[in-house]
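Note on ligand handling. Small-molecule inputs were canonicalized before submission; formal charges were left as drawn, and no protonation-state enumeration was performed. Where a ligand contained multiple stereocentres, the stereochemistry in the source SMILES was retained. For flavin-adenine dinucleotide, this procedure yielded the string shown in the input block below.
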Amino acid sequence: MSEKFNVPSELPRYPRSMWRTVTTLPTFPELREDIKVDATVVGAGIAGVTTAYLLSLEGYKVALIDAGQILDGTTGYTTAKISAQHGLIYSEFLTNFRPEIAKGYYDANIEALRFIREMVETHGIDCDFKEETAYLFTNQEDKLDDLRKEFDAYQELGIPGQWHDSLPIPVAAKGAISMPGQAQFNPLKYLKFLVEKIVENGGLIYENTTIEDAKYGKPIEVYTLDKANTIFCNEMVVTSHYPFWNIQAGYFSRLSIERSYALAVKPETTFQGGMYLNIDDEKRSIRSAVFEGEEVLIVGGENHQPGKSDNTFDHYLALEKFAGETFGVREIPFRWSAQDITTLDKIPYIGPFSSDYPFVFIATGFNKWGMTNGTAAGLLLRDNILRRSNPYMDLFNPGRFNDKSMNQNIATSFKMAKELIAGKFAGAHEKIDNLEPDQGALVRHGGKKVGAYRDPEGKLFLVDTTCTHMGCETAWNEAERSWDCPCHGSRFSYSGDVLEGPATEPLKRVEE
Ligand SMILES: Cc1cc2nc3c(=O)[nH]c(=O)nc-3n(C[C@H](O)[C@H](O)[C@H](O)COP(=O)(O)OP(=O)(O)OC[C@H]3O[C@@H](n4cnc5c(N)ncnc54)[C@H](O)[C@@H]3O)c2cc1C
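Structure output:
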């Protein structure tokens, strides 16, 4: 029995991404001087690396900058299905938009899948790329109509797919749609190849370099923390997941965030292949992968707004229970969780940052489908920057506007205001002296509410839990030992360091 739980559990004590463990990535220096390049790409996840790679192929002098290590954002913690089957998306798009938009979204994602496949085949990239059929399914009677509507949308749009009354794996389903010819891979082994090519093509890559601000002009000035250094460039690309820059474009009220969870499981039974995702109240995702030459299953699901879960360990336990009941669990070598961003209408924002800044570009809001959407972003941003035509420019243009989106925009702003107020009145739950080793909580200290964590050796860390981004109250995330902000998803370590933006400044430390 794991020490952390009062139920039998094989869960590892600490989160660790399987992709990051099995892939040795190159390291890069911190930027410590002013430089001049053609294009600055801020954020080295799949979107930033693909964009920088494609620009470097076109002869652009590129600087790719990351606040931490490359590929240690959401891309390092994904489940890496490469698929155009994105839940109940096509029926929703057909309800909200013209059929060309729904079909365009599918085509752009299929082209991205084709691009990845061609890269792997042309360059012989060893990244466990494997073609698989994707299945979307439900075991809830009340969801069957929604699934049928999705299947109708496939037929209306000419998307290849088939209806099934059961699944090829031992998971109960009342209905399923298969989409053939999709794929899975180890995303970091694939992106490592692109990173190496960026360097070969003369690109500059910097790690541990947070970009805090930029000044629009000719050239654009991109500033590191406290304006310590400046990158002068003609074009800037914001691929920092949550945009680090919000100037006049209102992105903060147009994006919502969800955390979700994954386990790598050594199963007791044989897996019949395929990639699976349900649409049920308890979300479940399944695919296979290879770890130490052996097949493991990546079982994912359990979504919630960051900072909004009573005990984040419960999500891992729910996945462990599901995996045990379904496949049998011999061992769980890895557990990890991450968060992704969704736009108001579920179509990513890829293109010019705003009409006021035609030389700044953004890619965000991949709605948990960044392997294809992030790759599509690279292709589209390259064409934006080269001023080349691309059939998907209008579809993904961040400046698109409709009434429904505006209503949701107001709703998102309202939700944030509620978080700001609710957080300020949240009570402190624990007494500092009662904190066990490896436990964190809000406590009262010196008459104030502070965030506290006692490490396994007994050392106490106290922080002011006010998010340094926009002042919301962060909440303790027990499973990751972090302080998470419900408003815009910034995350901080127990000692206050920034783990994830948009915040760039650490939480204030509080004296003991
Ligand atoms: C649990 C989970 C499972 C998923 N499964 C799938 C799947 O099966 N298939 C699929 O297609 N998608 C999946 N997704 C979605 C996909 O992983 C993401 O959409 C994608 O990885 C996002 O890539 P990105 O490049 O936008 O961001 P990231 O990978 O987060 O990269 C952004 C980078 O920007 C850096 N950065 C941030 N701020 C700054 C700053 N101020 N200065 C410098 N650098 C900065 C960060 O350090 C980070 O490295 C999943 C997501 C989650 C959460």
